[in-house]
Amino acid sequence: MYRSLFDDCIDKGIKFEYTCDHRFYRLQNYSNTLDELLQETQEIISGREKADVELAVKRILYPPRIVRALVDWKIKNTRNIPDIEGLIIDAIRVGLGTYRGEDTSPLLCKLRAELSEKDATVLDHEVFQMCDSVTWDSSKPEYSRATSQAIANKTRNDLLFIALGHGGTAVGIDVFLRYCDLVHSEGSLFYTARFSRAKLFDQQPKLGKKERAMLKHWAAGRDIVVFDEDSYSGRTLKLARNYFQRLFPGQEVWIAANFMTYEAKEELRK
């Protein structure tokens, strides 16, 4: 049975309301190299840190941050590492395993070794993240429970679950794992595509040719869900839905979000 790290934080007094969780909300702020991030994540996963509540929050924030780092590096570097997609998948496995409560230290060590072997300069990549009050508030476990149940009300099939990064990655992992636990899905797959219109001015989900081919292969026999943590205007999710409908012709693309305004819902109905 899946026990969410977000529920663990609630038990420790976190409310996922940035006005109440100021100290822990600010843990979203980050600036360091990927190498340092990998080392810090190793310490967090192994439990050597002593601050119990802070450790619980960091277990949520740090593994998806590795995914963020590799996705950003892939986008910025035209001279990509061969099989960068495989390394992003390995980073996602670290996130999925950590969220499930598994010891992912061996996976982390393997990932760092592969990065060092293929192109050690990636380890010097600067990882930067700023606080986002909307993302924090949209991470409430009750929202994630409702979203996973809403998906299960539509289908109980295996999913290709695509979280829009960067904000949707962490809570997207949680929603994905809740769904898998709810319907006992063992064949669902998770991936993330950066689509940051406001902060990074992305015009469409930032996926390379190999990633698009991989996702087309993964989509066979699975229902497709595109997830973002929040939607205020509905525009980002609408553009994402249109993009993925073109990528997966003949398959329906469902969209989901933990928080969605009335205006967003109306936009998405058009």
Which key features would you list for this structure?
alpha/beta, Rossmann fold, 2 domains, four-stranded parallel β-sheet
Structure in words:
- This protein has 270 residues and is of the alpha/beta class.
- It has two domains: 5-129, no CATH class; 133-269, Rossmann fold.
- It is 55% helix and 14% strand.
- It is built from twelve helices and six strands.
- It has helices at 5-11, 22-25, 34-46, 52-76, 84-99, 105-119, 133-137, 141-154, 167-183, 209-219, 235-247, 262-269, and strands spanning 30-33, 126-129, 159-165, 189-194, 223-231, 253-260.
- Helix 1 runs antiparallel to helix 4.
- It is globular.
Radius of gyration, rounded?
18 Å
- Poorly predicted runs are none
Helix content: 40-55%
Number of structural units classed as domains: 2
The biggest sheet amounts to: 4 strands, parallel
Brief description of this entry?
This protein is α/β, with parallel strands linked by helices and 270 residues long. 55% of the residues lie in helices and 14% in strands. It starts with a helix and ends with a helix.
Topology, please?
Layout: H1 5-11, H2 22-25, E1 30-33, H3 34-46, H4 52-76, H5 84-99, H6 105-119, E2 126-129, H7 133-137, H8 141-154, E3 159-165, H9 167-183, E4 189-194, H10 209-219, E5 223-231, H11 235-247, E6 253-260, H12 262-269
Helix pairs in contact: 1-4, 3-4, 3-6, 4-5, 5-6, 8-9
